[in-house]
Amino acid sequence: MLRVVGIGPGGADQMTPRALAALRESSVIVGYSAYVELVRPLYPEKEFVATAMRGEEERCRIAVERAAAGEEVSVICSGDAGVYGMAGLVLTLAARERVDVEVVPGMTAACTGAALLGAPLTHDFAVISLSDLLTPWERIEQRLRCAAEADFVLCLYNPMSCRRTGYLRRACEIAMQFRSPETPCGLAHNIGRDGESGEILTLEMLRDANVDMFTTVFIGNSQTRVIGGRMVTPRGYRAEREEA
Amino acid sequence: MLRVVGIGPGGADQMTPRALAALRESSVIVGYSAYVELVRPLYPEKEFVATAMRGEEERCRIAVERAAAGEEVSVICSGDAGVYGMAGLVLTLAARERVDVEVVPGMTAACTGAALLGAPLTHDFAVISLSDLLTPWERIEQRLRCAAEADFVLCLYNPMSCRRTGYLRRACEIAMQFRSPETPCGLAHNIGRDGESGEILTLEMLRDANVDMFTTVFIGNSQTRVIGGRMVTPRGYRAEREEA
Question: For the whole model, what pTM was predicted?
Fold first, then answer.
C-alpha cells in the first residue's frame, strides 16, 4: 500500500490522527529532507528515505517501486498532500505500476495561515503559487489579474525563492489595478514552527514587504477589514455590516 | 478565552490534536445542532449550546457573551474555522467586547474532498460558494466566469440547498464557455461521514448531476486528467507530461 500523507505545518499537534495512523502503519517513509526531520522524532524506529529539494520525481519513483514490491510506504508532504503536494505525481506514477494509493489530507497553509491572521478566507478565495518553476509566469499573471478583478481573496504560496525576487511586488501591482492600496493584507511566517508570526499590513506595504519561502501571503478582497488587530473578510451577516 | 474551532469533516480521526485540546479546555461548546451531535460523544461531560441552521449570529453572540463573563468557550465549525466558517463573525462580535479569540483551523472540504477523488487541487484553484444567501448571484457568476477563464481548478461549496436548484447547472454552463465538456470533474459526497463516496464524471455530466448540501464539487482545469480512475491535475513534472 502506498499513501501520500499531508503532515500539516510540522508539529504533531496539527497532524490528524488519520495521518499519524498512516505513518504508524508504514515501514518506509519517503520525503523531502526537511520534512523527514519533522517526522522522524515521532517514529524513530521507521526507515526514512530523504531526497533533496527538487527531488520530487526521484522521491515518488522510489516510493512507487517499494510499494510495488509489497512494502507499506508513505510519501509525506508539508501541509496538504494535494495542494501543491505530491499526490498528483504519485497517482500518475503509481497507475503505471498498478499500485493502490490512498491520499491522506493535511492542514494546508491557506487554512493554518488564515487562522494565525484572523479570518481572511471566510469568503470566496483563490490559491495561487508564485513559483514559475513548473508554470509559465504569463499564466500566473493572468490568474492574478482574473482573481483580483473578480474580488477573490488571494492566498499566495511560494511568494519568493532564492532565484526569484520581485514576483510578490508584481502580484501586488496587479492587485492594485483592481483594489485600493489600503486593502488589508497578511503575512503568515513559519506557520506551526519556531518563529511563527502573523503580520497585517496594507497592499501598498505588502508590495515592498520581506517574505521568504516560509511565508504565505493573503490579500484581502474589497470587503476585508482589520478588526481588533485581526484580518477579517466578512461573509455578509448583519452584525458584520453594522461594523463596516 | 474564546476559540473558534474547525472540527474537520466530522470524525475524530480528522480533528487535529490542537482542535481536540481546545475542546477539552472549554467548559462550553457552542455550535449548529448537527455539528454539536458530532462532538458531544467525545466530551459528554461538557455543556453544549446548539442553535438551528441560520442561527449563526445568535450562536456567536451567546459564545461571546459567555466568554466575556469569564468562561472558556469554543464555537465549533464543520471543516475549517475560517473557510465559510464562523471565525469572521466571532472576531467581529468579540472585538466589541474586547474578548480574546484564538482561531483553531480544521480540515476543509476542499482538501478532504480532493483527497477522496485523487489530486484535483495540485495546481492553482478557486474556492467559490454557490450559496446566494449572503452574496448576490451576479457576484458569484462573475467569480465563476473569471476563474474559469483563468483556468483555475474550481472547488464549489454549497452547490445546492432545498431552496436553491439549478445553480450547479448554471455554474457548469459558465465553465463550458471556457472548458471542454469532457473536462474531468468530481463530486465528494458525505466526506468523513457515513455514505462517504467520490464520483468522477465529465463537466457535461456534472451539469445534470445530483448533488445535495453534503456534496463538494470539483471542476478540473484544462490539464486535469483521469488517471487510474482518479482525478489528477498535473503540476507540470516531466513524468506527468509523458502521461498526457
Answer: 0.97
